[in-house]
Amino acid sequence: MDEQTRVELAEPRIEKGHFQLIAGFGGRFNQQTVKDIPALWEKFAPHCGSVPGQKGDETYGVGFNFDGQGGFDYLAGVAISKLDDLPDTFRWVEIQPQQYAVFEHKGPLSQLPQVFQYIHGTWLPQSGYQHSSGPEFERYSADFNPQRNTGTIEIWLPVTV
Fold first, then answer.
1. Are 4 and 55 in contact (CB under 8 A)?
2. Which among 79, 101, 103, 102 is positioned nearest to 90, based on CA atoms?
3. Cα(141)–Cα(50) distance, integer angstroms
């Protein structure tokens, strides 16, 4: 396997997630249109730091409403404290408290498809855990910079025993 496709992930930590509201821009995607997600991030990026009620500097990519056929909703956003002042141009999603397997990825953003393939195709079937309902999400550290491949991406996969 070449450097571009090799993915190395440490064993995930198992963590109880907490309630979060994530707001940003979103759309419906499938295996053919998933390549359009970076354009969604480009559209959202100018709003980082100025979303009403924003909490922290981390950003989130949230996948939800999976249809079992490869279709899902995806939201590029930030954590917010309330919905009151959120403009109508923004979408939002609730993340409920539940158990997650949390994977840390420090490689390039371009490797995310291989990371998700490893998590769902290799780790999950061998882990003793089941994929649980609810959103799965990427949490990008405040110092994340996709151009310089700096910072950390955590992938939060909802699981149950």
1. no
2. 79
3. 17
Give me the amino acid identity at 62. Answer: V
Helix H or strand E encompassing 72? strand 72-80
Place of tokens 């997650």: 100
Q: Name, in order, each residue with C-beta under 8 angstroms of 113's C-beta and a sequence gap of 6 or more.
A: 34
Express each pLDDT in 114-156 by its tens digit.
Answer: 898 899 999 999 999 999 989 999 999 988 877 776 788 999 9
Q: How far is residue 42's CA from residue 139's CA, in Å, rounded to a whole number?
A: 17
Q: Count Cβ atoms below 10 Å from residue 119 Cβ, excluding itself.
A: 21
Single-letter amino acid code for the residue at 11? E
Q: H or E element: which one contains 38? A: helix 37-44
Alpha carbon of 43 to those of 24, 36, 46, 151: distances in Å? 10, 11, 7, 21
pLDDT in tens, 94-105: 999 999 999 999
- Report the C-alpha gap between 13 and 144 in whole angstroms: 21
Beta carbons within 8 Å of 130's beta carbon, 6+ residues apart: 159, 160, 161
- Closest by CA position to 93, among listed 76, 108, 107, 109: 76
